Automatic annotation (TrEMBL):
Segments of skewed composition (Acidic residues): 1143-1154, 1189-1202
Name of this chain's protein: TPR-like protein
Comp. bias regions, Basic and acidic residues: 977-1037, 1063-1081, 1203-1216
Coiled coil: none
Bias (Low complexity) ranges: 1120-1129
SMART domains assigned: TPR
Region (Disordered): 973-1237
Length: 1237
């Protein structure tokens, strides 16, 4: 319906532009003057007084007295009142009508009085439209106190209408007035129930009036119906109503074109709306409504343009200067003109005019949306002035003016989106963050894709997360903050996804990306880095597009943050380059003396971060230079001094570091970071065991920090927990009492760790301490593995992987344990940590022992023992003087010899046994040396006993096993060699066979390709020769191809002949020799396909129906759904053939390719031919398409007689019968359909 109405309306408006001018003037019939008869004496002639209706006095009292004294008729009172109304003196017109209805003559004749009452009602309604809502509003003429309100005039109109209804209840004028009063009351009502009641009453009245009497529709009622439909958002139906009025009364006042344009606007046809309003303005140049609506159109156009474009300036100028200003001059109380001008003044910061115009719009409008706009402008004015309480109040009123419930849903109403956004912004400025978040959440309930609401709400959630993060140690809020953190990320990511929608034409916001990066930087460094890199790309594009000529740079703060994230990901080279670029930028900014940029602070931070990077990368010399450079510029830079002290403490000897740490404690002893560094220094000092808690320097230092500086110092709490772990680990466990004390010490350590975790749930070192306590005290490996598995994703430290390897080894998960140790060794220790190498050796040894105990894996244990021996030797290379590592190597060699001796001969080799024997000899010597050393790892007698066992028993047993293995391998060597040779021969023969088959396959493919190429060439040559023969034959037959067709020239006058081929008795055209030859070619022939001829053309050529050939060429199609066989009652189908017969009357179809018609005989369906073949052979394959002759003979005789009769009547029609021919039911029964093509 929408498109139909739209096109009709547009055409009507277009047609009107070429019609005669239309004059819109509701007072067009009012004369310029009237003559009032004067009653004189009986003997004198009757005289009259001329009253100039264009120059009436302001006070109508004298005219009223004159008319009353002369007992004038109603028409004189009415004419003078209309004269006042014509010139805008509505009060004078009302006074005339009041005195006229109360005159003596009108009191006697109620029928004379009724029209005056009706006119008075409509004048009251006119005054109500232009009156203010409340008394005392200044409209600019200094008569604020004398103004009457809308309610006053509506009450006057109601009482007058009641008086008129008592005279004539069925008067159409009274009914229309009653409907308008109800409509205006509905617009002014604030209670939704009253609004609906009045609207329903108005709808009922106008529906009854619209139907009218005698079938004649009332156009004023039609206009009112359309207005009600528009108010109910039924824009398509309202458009139909306005178009009906325009069609019947193009000079209707009020102009229906205004309503048509409004409907088009709401339906999305804004250009059509503009055309309607321009036409309305052309008819009535003084139309204030058309002017202001055109202004809104041009303002809407500017929304999609750039402010720098010429189109923007032109549209904005036309909107404000040409249309809004003109509308405002025509009526300074026009509400929508006031709001438009107020918006303009707001952009110019003319806040005084904004307030005056907005208040006027609120008072004089009877449309809720316009009043909402007025409140919104007032709210923006106070929002701009910082008067947030008033702004919030006005935003709420603006929102209430447009409350509506969403379609198809019950619940809270939508309201006005800009006003709700303003409410939320003001609440944020007033620091009412709770109500602000609630406001934006409700906005997103009704407008899930509102970018502004998602952005602000996401920023509020983010600020809440940052505030809690800054207050380290807020207990019990971690879970809630985690939920808020996820909400913030979800909202801001939704906004970020909206940028990808090209239809929205949104540009990425750097501040949003920075906020999102800050949310990610805690545990998702990669996503944080992506956000910052996108900001970097935005700044690079700004620099690239800048045409000011000024040298611009990417912010060094941004480069620093990107470099920090690259540093955390281990990309040291990339981070180093970014730091250096940022330092270069700072130098350039310092030379330009850029305002608002503290280049010294930036250089200091960047230099420190670069030094930290060099330190982490192992370039301690470069880091030392940078730290010393920083201290040269800022000697009290504590962080740089601490890092430099740490570097010196790690050097050997650490004398310089000790001096520095002592000096730091003297100058900055209250700094918790300095105290933490000093605690770390104390932890590296040698301790005397057992440790005395009250006397240990490290314990006393941390206790002092907790008691006198910060009881929530997480480093001190974690360090004290570690000290208790060390103490518990070294405690005796011989008796039950010792074990109870040890358990309590572990529990004390866990208490410190728990407190640290309570203050900081992400304290990985405290969590690691808890896991260690679980393993050492309770052997709870499973729970500890869960903790270490989480920690390895957060803490980039080899100790986590070492501890994880210990726990996995305790659970006998050897492979995972080896993987964890290997990660710690190669990723964090450079492959040169003897402790980790020893752990690897121990795990491989334990794995070998486990495999040795099972028969199925006994052979695998040899490899495990070999790996254990390899790692033990590597550890010994790093600490060659360690008797522990010497013992470990000897012990593994001893176990390897013992294990390999016990294996069956088939599972070991002579070489392995000889290596084990050599290793056993080394182990015996090592055991002897270790037993004689100063600090043996075990009692010397035990070690000597093991060496003696190897020397006295194991060595002899191994020697005998070697002899047996040698004999076994020599005995089976010939068999093994023969088997190996046979296998190699079989493999070689198989490879040769596969190679031969591959060569044969390739040769066959080459042969096929060559044959295929020759066939293609022969086919092309054959096609070329046939084309040449066909061209020669066509030239001999006289075909004319100038117009691109295949028509045979007529030798003389008369109708044209049919296609080549002689006729047959069955009505078909027999295929000629050339056609059969082309049919023989089948798919290989490239001859052109035959084309169908139209029915009229065939009739004209046969000369049988000249009149039919002269008919107007109207295309018709005859469709037989069941084919010829179906029409004739025959059973069976033709498989692949389609049942389609087309009868066309246009000669243009001669050149169009048509589908092949169905066969009409069984022989034809089989591809046989009854006709003679001049070449002496039958046509091969599928026959070429045949064209049925239109003669009365042939296939029509085979059809249903009733069907034939219908066709005969169709052919015999006279030319004037051509046109819309109804389809006979009999044709439908035969599944035949005639339809215009």
């Amino acid at each position: 319906m929408n498109s139909f109405s739209q096109s009709n309306g547009a055409s009507q408006l277009a047609d009107e532009t070429h019609a005669k001018p239309i004059v819109l003037n509701r007072f067009l019939d009012v004369p310029s003057s009237i003559d009032i008869p004067i009653q004189e004496a009986e003997d004198e002639e009757e005289t009259s007084v001329e009253v100039d209706l264009d120059n009436l006095p302001d006070d109508p009292t004298e005219l009223c007295v004159l008319l009353d004294n002369e007992n004038s008729q109603r028409n004189f009172w009415m004419s003078i009142a209309l004269g006042y109304a014509k010139h805008g003196k509505t009060d004078g017109a009302i006074e005339m009508l009041i005195k006229g209805k109360d005159s003596e003559r009108m009191q006697r004749d109620v029928n004379e009085r009724l029209p005056l009452l009706g006119a008075l009602v409509w004048l009251y309604l006119m005054k109500a439209r232009g009156a203010a809502r409340s008394a005392g509003v200044d409209n600019g003429n200094g008569m604020a106190g004398e103004q009457k309100t809308k309610d006053y005039y509506l009450n006057q109109a109601t009482s007058t209408l009641n008086e008129a209804i008592r005279i004539d209840r069925d008067s159409i004028v009274n009914r229309l007035a009653r409907g308008m009063i109800s409509l205006m009351k509905s617009a002014l009502a604030t209670n939704p129930a009253d609004k609906k009641t009045n609207m329903d009453q108005a709808t009922k009245i106008f529906e009854e009036a619209y139907r009218g009497h005698g079938g004649k529709k009332n156009m004023f009622a039609a206009m009112a119906r359309a207005r009600i439909l528009f108010a109910n958002k039924k824009y398509a139906q309202a458009l139909d109503g306005y178009q009906e009025v325009l069609l019947n009364r193009p000079d209707m006042d009020p102009d229906p074109r205004i309503g048509i344009g409004l409907c088009y606007w709401q339906l999305g046809y804004k250009d059509d709306a503009k055309m309607a309003w321009e036409r309305s303005l052309e008819i009535d140049p003084t139309s204030k409504v058309a002017n202001i609506l055109l202004a809104l159109y041009h303002l809407s156009t500017t929304a999609g343009l750039s402010e720098s474009s010429p189109e923007f300036a032109e549209n904005y100028r036309r909107a404000i200067t040409d249309y809004t200003q003109r509308a405002y001059k025509l009526d300074k109380d026009l509400p929508i003109a006031c709001t438009t001008f107020a918006t303009y003044f707001f952009s110019k910061k003319g806040m005084g005019n904004v307030e005056a115009l907005a208040k006027k719009a609120i008072e004089y409008t009877d449309i809720g949306t316009v009043a909402s706009d007025g409140w919104y402008l007032l709210a923006r004015k106070h929002h701009y002035a910082g008067e947030y309480e008033k702004a919030l109040s006005y935003y709420k009123k603006s929102n209430e003016g447009r409350l509506e419930k969403p379609r198809g849903a019950a619940g809270e109403e939508k309201g006005y989106l800009p006003a709700r956004l303003g409410m939320g912004q003001v609440q944020v400025l007033m620091k009412d963050y709770g109500p602000a978040k609630y406001t934006f959440e409700k906005i997103l309930t009704h407008y899930p894709k509102c970018i502004e609401a998602m952005t602000i709400l996401g920023a509020l959630y983010a600020e809440e997360v940052f505030a809690v993060g800054a207050q380290a140690g807020v207990a019990g809020a971690k879970d809630d903050i985690g939920i808020v953190h996820r909400k913030a990320i979800q909202l801001l990511e939704s906004v970020r996804n909206c940028w990808k929608d090209s239809k929205r034409n949104l540009r990425p916001d750097s501040s949003l990306l920075l906020t999102l990066a800050k949310l990610y930087e805690g545990d998702q460094h990669e996503k944080a880095l992506q956000c910052l890199q996108q900001v970097q790309q935005i700044e690079m594009e700004i620099i690239k597009d800048d045409e000011s000529g000024e040298e611009l740079h990417i912010q060094p703060q941004l480069l620093n943050n990107i470099a920090v994230l690259q540093y955390h990901q281990g990309n040291y080279d990339v981070a180093r380059e970014l730091y250096q670029t940022a330092l270069t930028t700072c130098a350039a900014l310092a030379q330009k003396n850029a305002e608002g940029v503290d280049t010294d602070a930036l250089v200091t931070t960047l230099s420190y971060n670069l030094a930290r990077l060099e330190e982490a990368a192992g370039n301690t010399e470069e880091a030392t230079k940078l730290y010393e450079g920083l201290l040269a510029r800022h000697e009290h830079y504590v962080d740089a001094n601490m890092r430099l002290t740490y570097i010196y403490l790690r050097k050997s000897p650490p004398d310089e570091g000790i001096k520095r740490i002592q000096k730091l404690m003297q100058t900055d002893g209250a700094n918790l970071e300095v105290r933490a560094l000093y605690g770390w220094y104390l932890s590296r000092q040698k301790k005397k065991f057992p440790i005395n808690i009250s006397e240990d320097p490290e314990m006393r230092h941390h206790k002092h920090s907790l008691q006198h500086y910060d009881k929530h110092d997480r480093y001190a709490l974690t360090a004290m927990g570690n000290l208790y772990l060390i103490i518990a680990r070294e405690m005796k466990r011989d008796t039950e009492s010792d074990r109870a004390k040890r358990r309590k010490t572990y529990e004390k350590a866990v208490e410190f760790f728990d407190k640290a975790l309570l203050l900081d749930g992400k304290n990985a070192y405290a969590a690691q301490g808890v896991a260690i306590a679980l393993v050492e005290d309770r052997r709870n490996y499973s729970q500890a593995v869960g903790i270490f598995t989480k920690l390895k994703e957060t803490v980039k430290d080899g100790a986590v992987f070492l501890n994880l390897g210990h726990c996995l080894a305790g659970l006998e998960q050897w492979s995972r344990s080896i993987e964890a140790y290997d990660t710690a060794l190669n990723k964090y220790q450079g492959g040169k940590d003897h402790n980790t190498l020893t752990c690897l050796g121990r795990v491989w040894y334990s794995k070998g022992r486990k495999e040795k105990g099972a028969e199925s894996t006994a052979a695998q244990s040899i490899e495990s023992f070999k790996n254990a021996l390899s790692f033990a030797k590597k550890a010994l290379e790093l600490a060659p003087d360690s008797t522990v590592y010497q013992f470990n190597v000897a012990f593994v060699q001893f176990q390897l010899a013992q294990t390999i001796r016990q294996l069956p001969e088939a599972q070991k080799t002579l070489a392995d046994m000889e290596d084990a024997a050599a290793g056993l000899d080394e182990a015996i010597k090592t055991f002897t040396a270790v037993a004689r050393s100063k600090n043996p790892p075990y009692p010397p007698q035990d070690i000597d006993q093991r060496a003696a066992m190897g020397r006295n028993s194991l060595a002899g047993q191994l020697a005998r096993a070697i002899d047996a293995q040698r004999a076994y391998e020599s005995t089976n060597a010939a068999k093994l060699a023969e088997s190996r040779a046979r296998r190699e021969a079989e493999m070689k023969k198989k490879e040769e066979e596969e190679l031969r088959k591959q060569e044969q396959l390739e040769e066959r493919q080459r042969t096929l390709a060559e044959e295929r190429r020759k066939l293609v060439e022969e086919s092309r040559e054959l096609a070329r020769r046939r084309m040449e023969e066909e061209e020669a034959r066509r030239g001999a037959d006289g075909y004319d191809t100038e117009d691109g067709g295949k028509r045979k020239r007529k030798a003389g006058g008369g109708g044209r002949k049919g296609r080549k081929g002689k006729g047959r008795e069955d009505g078909l055209i027999e295929t000629s020799e050339s056609e059969r030859e082309r049919g023989d070619a089948g798919a290989e022939s490239s001859a052109p396909r035959r084309r169908r001829r139209s029915k009229s053309q065939a009739l004209a050529e046969d000369g049988e129906d000249t009149a039919a050939a002269d008919r107007p060429k109207k295309r018709k199609r005859l469709t037989k759904s069941g084919g010829v066989a179906a029409a004739s009652g025959k059973k069976g189908g033709y498989g692949k053939y389609k049942s389609a017969e087309t009868v066309d009357s246009d000669e243009d179809l001669d050149d169009e390719e048509m589908t092949q018609p169905p066969p009409t005989t069984l022989k034809e369906a089989k591809g046989e031919d009854d006709g003679e073949d001049t070449a002496g052979k039958k046509t091969k394959g599928r026959r070429k398409p045949r064209v049925e002759d239109d003669s009365d003979e042939g296939p029509l005789e085979e059809l249903d007689p009733e069907f034939v009769e219908k066709i005969e009547r169709y052919r015999a029609r006279k030319p004037e019968e051509e046109g819309d021919v109804p389809i006979d039911p009999a044709l439908r029964d035969n599944d035949v359909e005639m339809e215009d093509d």
